[in-house]
Model the fold of this input.
Amino acid sequence: MWTVRCARCGQTTPYSLDQWRCPCGGPWEPPRPLPFDHRAIRPRQPGIWRYAELWPFQRDPVTMGEGWTPLIPLSSIEPRLWAKLDYIMPTGSYKDRGTATGLSALRELGARHVMDDSSGNAGASLAAYAARAGLQATLFVPAHAAPVKKAQIRITGAHLVEVPGPRAQATTTLMQALEQGGIYASHVYNPFTMLGLAAAAWEIWEQLGRAPDAVITPLGHGMLFLGLFLGFEALQAAGYIDQLPRLYGVQVTACAPLAQAFATGLETPAPVEERETIAEGVRIATPPRGPEILQVARITGGAILAVSESEIRIAQESLARHGLFVEPTGALAMTIWPQVLRETDHTIVLMLTGSGLKSPS
Ligand SMILES: [Zn+2]
Done:
């Protein structure tokens, strides 16, 4: 029996497959702080599974060796900047850490048919891991998602449902389908997804030999952002680091509910209209974990900013000139580092989250 806690009202309860969120509407999260003890690390285990002894499910994990991605200096000119190559994953995006732990937990609890709504990368990841786990998968994806990501879902044998209209419509359509059965294996609501994502923080800490001063991530649903916070918080609670790194999230001006809320001091996402952007992965108008994301940005002394389409293009090209080919969403961290460098004069890690092969145009 695995206990979870509502991020909104604080209620704790044993997790059950038929209650994917708290009756109050809040998302579940693992009890915090997460346990961490360096003696539990098993360096011979592949990827994130070096940390498996810290997690409840380890008997028969669904894995393709995800995690332990390279952390490299961005260039010899600026030694304070590090790039975490999180697009080097089994399905080409950072989602795989969370999918591996999230789906391992759901399968252990008895899930057979899993469903998710996604702008592409989470869907591609869940489809692949479900195929590997021998589970049936149905993915609801906006019709505007990148063709490569849709093809990546289809070829696994998963059922792909293309939903016209804004991203939010994919969620609405899934909710209707759920009434006919299936498990909502949401990469946003599944609390066990966050355990895998927290491992990104532990990897960075091990690879650098210390915590960085700041980490910059793209920000849509904010799962990587929150996962990094959980991971660093666990290290701090266990006495391995003194201070939490500042966490910076990057949104796009076409859809910036969290950047607007951060700038105006709101505690919940600002109401925005979802507009088109080349960074489709962060086109999320109403992030369910918005209040927690805003809290984390403020607690750590970071910020949430929004950038323009041309800034994204320039960042993507600039990364490619360093040899790093990422999709537009994956280049978001690259857009604001000069500003972050003015605020913290030390080590900054850029999370590069999705492969350029996903949207080669
Ligand atoms: Zn609640």
Remarks:
- The chain has two domains: 71-93+192-358, 95-184.
- The two ends are 47 Å apart (CA to CA).
- The mean pLDDT is 95.
